[in-house]
From TrEMBL:
This is Phospholipid-transporting ATPase. It comes from Miscanthus lutarioriparius. The keyword Membrane applies. GO terms for molecular function: ATP binding; ATP hydrolysis activity; ATPase-coupled intramembrane lipid transporter activity; magnesium ion binding. It is found in: Membrane.
Amino acid sequence: MASERPLLVATTPGASTPDDAPSPHPPAASLLPPAQSEPPLRADRLAFSVEVPDPFRPPYRRGDGPAADPSASSQQREREGGDDESRGVIVGEPSPEFAGNAIRTAKYSLLTFLPRNLFEQFRRLSYVYFLAITVLNQLPQVAVFGRGASVLPLAFVLFVTAVKDAYEDFRRHRSDRQENNRLASVLALGTAGEFQPKRWKHIRVGDVVRVASNETLPADMVLLATSDPTGVAHVQTVNLDGETNLKTRYAKQETQVRFSQNAGVGGILHCERPNRNIYGFQANLEIDGKRVSLGPSNIVLRGCELKNTTWAIGVVVYAGKETKVMLNSSGAPSKRSRLETQLNRETVILSFMLIGMCTTASVLAGIWLLNHRRELEFTQFFREKDYTTGKNYNYYGVGMQIFITFLMAVIVYQVIIPISLYISMELVRLGQAYFMGADKDLYDESSRSKFQCRALNINEDLGQIRYVFSDKTGTLTENKMVFQCASIRGVDYSSGKDTGGYSVVVGDHLWTPKMAVKADPQLVKLLRDSGSNEEPKLVLEFFLALAACNTIVPLVLDTRDSKQKLIDYQGESPDEQALAYAAASYGIVLVERTSGYIVIDVLGDRQRFDILGLHEFDSDRKRMSVIVGCPDKTVKLYVKGADSSIFGITNNSSELDIVRATEAHLHKYSSLGLRTLVVGMRELSRSEFEEWQLAYENASTAVLGRVNLLRSVAANIERNVHILGATGIEDKLQDGVPEAIESLRQADIKVWILTGDKQETAISIGYSCKLLTNEMTQIVINNNSKESCQRSLVEALATTKKLRAASSIGTQGPLLASETSTVTLALIVDGNSLVYILETELQDELFKLATECSVVLCCRVAPLQKAGIVALIKNRTDDMTLAIGDGANDVSMIQMADVGIGISGQEGRQAVMASDFSMGQFRFLVPLLLVHGHWNYQRMAYMILYNFYKNATFVLVLFWYVLYTAFTLTTAITEWSSLLYTVLYTSLPTIVVGILDKDLNKATLLAYPKLYGSGQRDDKYNVNLFVLNMLEALWQSLAVFYLPYFVYRLSTIDMSSLGDLWALAPVIVVNMQLAMDIIRWNWIIHAFVWGTIAATTVCLFVIDSIWVLPGYGAIFHIMGTGLFWFLLLIIVVTAMVPHFVFKAFTEHFRPSDIQIAREMEKFANVNQVNLSEIPMRGLS
């Protein structure tokens, strides 16, 4: 039978815990019994109860009713509906009242696909316009084109897009089915501990689930028991917080021991309703009249994997859409580029132009009918009677004829809004995506991953980014930290040299730490000095502190050599891993950890250290401590933390010189960009330990104010500490991160870091990547209530105003003052504060403060909080946002931003699958945005405006002709020529130019990041440029129409011949303007620009050679005269003069920064220009 001894449950320092989530109180070293054997996996007579109400609700009063058992009272409250802030569940009895465990990430179903997909497509206002034209053309009175032919263009575009969307959603449905149909072992009702397989989608709240090693947890569960006798379980939370390190979770001793004894467990578990906080969980478990607190260390979440634990059993408290991972997952949005969104604005303007032309044509037609109403009997098409049959013609009177003429004009002039534009945009984006993927500067050699364009509809948005929101772990860093140097008792040991590592002999095997660090020869010599000198003992204490003051779990891995083993240190904090490896390299090797003790090989001597207590790290204390029972029967307190925290609890009077020397070394390490920690030690007397043990037990079982009580207990024991030394750790950044951030900042792109790590870690990485500097004033928002957050925000805004005022007084001008104030402020805000700020009125204050700061770091943020920060900027400004991350915890942020980028790194494929683009390294952002983003924006902006311009030119030519044909909407240009104008004659050249043209080369764009600002300012696509293009279309249409009209007005040339001239001249004119604007010519562009003019001529020959079509042979007649060719030349010159003059004037007298850079490339040989005018600061 298992012992009733208390079980040690140690909470990891890296975890964030709410007010009632401490580690349970451990026993003294002298009371620790030997380890137990593993209990059998059974669940006989499992009959305990779990309720999930408000954790701070007062317990029920026993005098209110019969003194029934707690379980019965729980069931009664459940039937009565419970508290609004709570929920009730009977453990072992699945409840149908709560959400099932099935999940759904797909956007469509069979019933909703057609209406929802059409709704999303018709968000393009142009599609609504084309739909109206198509419907209008079905009316026989106004039909201009064939009914079927008018439907085909729009139907084809809608069909192709729907097929693409259906395929993407089919993949999501397939992924959902695979997830929902996975199997889990669930305790069967009415059986003696028998677990049976059940599909995930059939699991309900209240089910008891058994999970084996390396299996994924199907739902959020409170741990009841594990294969470890002490209730320890290890999980990997990569799908939640992006971290690959193992986390430690625990089953409470009350359920672990009773489960091992096959005893029934009765009780009530009070906990909160489903919420998005993945770092917090508040609950109380009542068993036998005793209330036991539960916290984040007792719950395992859906999506985590069980590691290095044979099995674990838990009860489901949140299932399906109510699990924390699903609550933190926002649905996949339908993203549209900014240029595409702005098309709606131009579409409205063009619609007004269309209405104006149609109204003019119809009103003038009505006036003509009124003026010729007496001649209608003898006028063709308007005779009121057919005297041969005595029937009326289709003449409906003047009023109706005006209305019909208006509708017919709409159909004839519809091409002013080009439906081919959207197809052209898709083709251009496809070509751009190909060249981005083929760029060697975006290829990651280490992971052999190419750049992938997963969303083809937002390429041009890469050229307009203002804000970059970046994850830290795996995005900016490699998540690899390396011990570099140490200061021990005031002596600096930073001359580390390569070492072959240190190995431990265990039986016939040789255990070697997986990673070796550089060891200082002097330290190695001191540790092996067996003399009576005090210095070697202090050095040994320092490395014992590094090996013991952590929550590292050593894993022994097999190698190809059967006698060689590797020790892999797993833990929540990469810093702790680096320190453990450092201690191992000096011969202090942590080889085993249980919940009650650790085993350390001290220079070949294996020693057991009992873990008597642990005070986890928190952002207020900025330190953690562990109380250990040493082999020599002494009890010692080891503590490590930030220098400001540790120096405040030292005995400065006796160690003043050591403190000063250590401070000097810390400053040296920090200036090198290293992460620093200070290590201390204190030996406890028996009475001090017993006093702490009693206080710790009382604090850990408190229902209210538990965190404050535990902090008080920690503060009482963490005092009069002796400084052992300090450490310097290098956080391995990805290559080129500091330089990339500097380039982005030079391009006026603000970089924000959103991470789930601790505040100190976020600040340290900010310094490492040069985002933070010592000259910046840091504003920290770290509060635990809405009121305190409000006060902090108000104070921070006041501080900002004071700093601005002070900087303006100390500078010579307001511009310099503004620059000075903006570059000196950095905002650091934690996730706990964001709980009270986001989705409340305080987020407006946060927005004001954040936009005043040049740097923002958000730490300890949950996935949906990351998305909330992105939305804070996205919903309040017109600035484009980009989010980049590598883990599943970044998915919501990636989907919320205008542009989402996934890093193909160590954290799985979740971020990549949810992203718009994927790549291998953060530094690739620089060529992606500054080069490809700039090119994509410039090309697409020009292509859109050019399409509007060329179609408006053609439509206006048709309009001028109507003025001279009694407003009958007849045209001299054949229907085939009208159709081919938008499809063949003018579309192909602009597609090729949109893919291949480059206004500047890559070297120039990378050397001068400020050139990126043209996209941020909408320089290449705005209303002014649109109006200018429409004016050019107006002028050129006048030249194309009226020059032939006045020349041939008195001649005998037929309308078909003149129509061929009016069909050919616009093609030459618009292609000549395109040629005038092209920057980089190559043989492909030459072929398409001049080839389309030749193709137009050939098509006119072919069309006029078909005898069944009107205008048979007309082209041969008019082209046979010299006047035709001379007139064609005059038309082109006359049409191009205004564009040429305007272009020459602006580029000479008002050149843009892009034009200046282009001139430098052309005349100054940019390759000889110093390309490092913007200094890139490398890693220290």
